[in-house]
Amino acid sequence: MAQISLHGVAKSFGKAEVIHPTDLAIEDGHFIVIVGPSGCGKSTLLRMIAGLETATAGEIRIGGKRVNEVEPKDRNIAMVFQNYALYPHMTVYENMSYGLRIRRMPREEIRERVGRAAGILELTPYLQRKPRELSGGQRQRVAMGRAIVRQPAAFLFDEPLSNLDAKLRVQMRLEIQKLHRELRTTSVYVTHDQVEAMTLADRMVVMNAGTVEQVGAPIQVYDDPASRFVAGFIGSPSMNFLPGRRAGNDVEAGGGVRVPLPESLRASAPGSLIVGIRPEHFALGREGGIPFHLRVETIEALGADSLVHSGFEGTPVVARVDGHATPAAGEVMPFSVQPGKLYFFDADTGKRLRAPAA
Amino acid sequence: MKDSTSTTALMVENRPVADFVAHAILILGVIVVAFPLWVTFVASTRTFDEIVHVPMALYPGSHLLENYGQALSSGSGRGSSAPVGTMLFNSFVVAVSIAVGKIVISILSAFAIVYFRFPLRKFFFWMIFVTLMLPVEVRIIPTFKVAADLHLLDTYPGLVLPLIASATATFLFRQFFLTIPDELVEAARIDGAGPMRFFWDVILPLSKTHIAALFVILFIYGWNQYLWPLLITGKESMYTVVIGIKRMIAGGDAFNEWNVIMATAMLALMPPALVVILMQKWFVKGLVDTEK
């Protein structure tokens, strides 16, 4: 087990910088999820930690030791790939023990370690099978087993659940969680799925276009997003954004709706900004809050609650309401939002407006 | 579904003429291919006099053991008198060496081209590829000169080496390696396998079926070589069987021991046929459990 730290790590291909200088500290035993849309550089970042890509600038440390020049096999890490990357001609046992055999570990110890890992992952009956005789979920467990038997300083997961169907994904997510509780090994997990990020992470790293936008505990990132990008990416359905214009101490959000600007933001707020509202913060009815009249377009009834897709002054807006209080399509319905639940972003920079530090 | 299958079955049964024609064409095809083989076989079981007697009977005679025995031990009395046994052995050595050599060289060069980054990699790949356009016949004179200068005439290396380089096999392996997912290489790197370890433990086992297929093709290619062995062998003891058959035919028709020549032809035919039949099982096995 070890902590991992990145200091000004950057990656460029020729002139194009795909990862801008990044600092990141991962504490021992933590489960870190790097989340972002595809092409944001999250996998590249992970592969630089693994040593499969070289960092063009900065320093990577694992367990306090600089590893920039160290081969992947000597970094004491194990990696789980999206397509499992099992050796197709080897049995499950051979797959899991391959790394240990290369390290010339005594046969007895290999058997014991593989046996233990197979027990944890419920793979014992399958040890003599070939990967092609296993289901997707079992294959992914073998890939994790191959990582576990090495007893590495850190696990690196590269979108390990993306090839599984939805139901299996949920199940494997819980298993990964359980596994991490048992082993307490530092883990870095890359995904584009914000639900995986929310549920698995001790700390979440949100990336966009080669930059880390925000680092924090999932619920903290959810409640207190640092930018419009983070606010829109984390949370499903995503946050609604209404373009607004500053009008004195209020924000004119279109359709005659005026949203009061919190006192702390008044000094710093620019002329044009964006008002963010989470779907679940819309309440049906007009009592106590800022009233919004939404023209209902379609309704997705999910059972426990319903998603109301509507338009507000030309901007699509989604509201999450109780599953039984379904308004009819085509109707204009009154909704209200508590002023404290609003988010304000700078329309130019996309940054969240924050009270200046006292 | 049930209805449609029964109607197709009916349609087939309702067209006896088409059925008859199809079968007639197929049977005719089989006869065209098989008849010369049958004549060869019949001729190899008869005496010289029976063969030259017109018309030759089309059923096997009684001299099978005699003819084959003579061919294997002492060859034809006229023409070349090298025993076919030696020639078969030579052919076998040459065919196996060419097949194995080609596979070893091409799998290694494909491995280098796909998995290593080195200067002029593209250039070397194209160099190999360009040799595809130069068949043995085109470069045969300079090759002969080189082989002669290296004292390779009438030797196994002389028979084998010039035929070993294979752009086709290299290209085939390259295409196969490109289908192996990169993650497998990366997983092996993280597991601590060096390049050659990865080659032995992963690449080679995965290429098994490709190697088997190539072996069959290349064995037959090597066995059937004619022009190059004809040039480079002078001593009868170095003849391959294909050359041997040619040498046995000394001149005018009546001069040749056609019964022994036909027996030799049958013998020359058998090893490639055996390789195909035996390895076919391997093919099918390889195709059934695709390990990719």
Structure characterization notes:
Chain A is an alpha+beta fold and 358 residues long. Chain A has helices spanning 42-50, 92-102, 107-120, 136-148, 166-183, 194-200, 218-223, 228-233; strands spanning 4-13, 16-26, 31-35, 57-62, 65-66, 77-80, 154-158, 186-191, 203-208, 211-216, 240-247, 250-252, 258-260, 272-277, 283-284, 290-301, 305-312, 315-322, 332-337, 343-346. Chain A has a 6-stranded mixed beta sheet, sandwiched between helices. In chain A, β11 and β12 form a beta hairpin. In chain A, α2 packs parallel to α4 (136-148). The longest helix of chain A has 18 residues, at 166-183. Chain A is elongated, with a radius of gyration of 24 Å. By secondary structure, chain B is mainly α. Chain B is built from 15 helices and no strands. In chain B, α5 (84-115) packs across α12 (208-223) and α14 runs antiparallel to α15 (258-288). Chain B is globular and about 75 Å long. In chain B, 28% of the residues are buried. Chains A and B meet through β6 and α2 of A and α10 and α11 of B.
Quick summary:
The complex is a heterodimer of chains A (358) and B (292). Chain A is of the alpha+beta class and 358 residues long. Helices cover 23% and strands 34% of the residues of chain A.
Q: Trace the largest sheet of chain A across and list its strands.
A: 6-7-8-3-9-10
N-to-C CA distance of chain A = 40 Å
Outline of chain B = globular
Largest sheet descriptor of chain A: 6 strands, mixed
Computed over alpha carbons, the radius of gyration of chain A is 24 Å
For the secondary structure, the number of strands of chain A is: 20
Please give a handful of descriptors for the protein shown.
heterodimer; A: 358 residues; alpha+beta; six-stranded mixed β-sheet; five-stranded antiparallel β-sheet; 8 helices; 20 strands; 23% helix; 34% strand; elongated; B: 292 residues; mainly alpha; 15 helices
